[in-house]
Amino acid sequence: MPIVTATEFKTNLGHYLDVAADEDVFITRQGKVAGRLSDPARDRQRILDGLVGIIDDTPLTAKAARAERLAAA
């Protein structure tokens, strides 16, 4: 996870675009993180991977869904 200053980032933009394909690049300004450059496809995949196993794969009938919704209210 590279951490670079905004000046370094501007100077070597092409390099950091290549790096961002594999890992996040954090950009700092005055010693504080001002931004993050990352591959959007990798971010979406990370989110989807986190959802695996959360949703029960048992089919839900309309009657059971209604009962579940009413019980939650």
Provide structural commentary.
The longest helix has 12 residues, at 40-51. A three-stranded mixed sheet has the order 1-2-3. A hairpin with a 2-residue loop joins strand 2 and strand 3 (32-37). The chain has 73 residues and is α+β, with helices and mostly antiparallel strands. The protein is 51% helix and 19% strand. It has four helices and three strands, in the order βααββαα. The protein has a domain at 1-40: YefM-like fold.
- Structural class designation: alpha+beta
Parts with pLDDT < 50 across at least 5 consecutive residues: none
Largest sheet features: 3 strands, mixed
What's the helix count? 4
Radius of gyration: 21 Å
Q: So, CATH architecture of the domain at 1-40?
A: 3-Layer(aba) Sandwich
Query: What strand line-up does the widest sheet have?
Result: 1-2-3
Distance between the termini: 44 Å
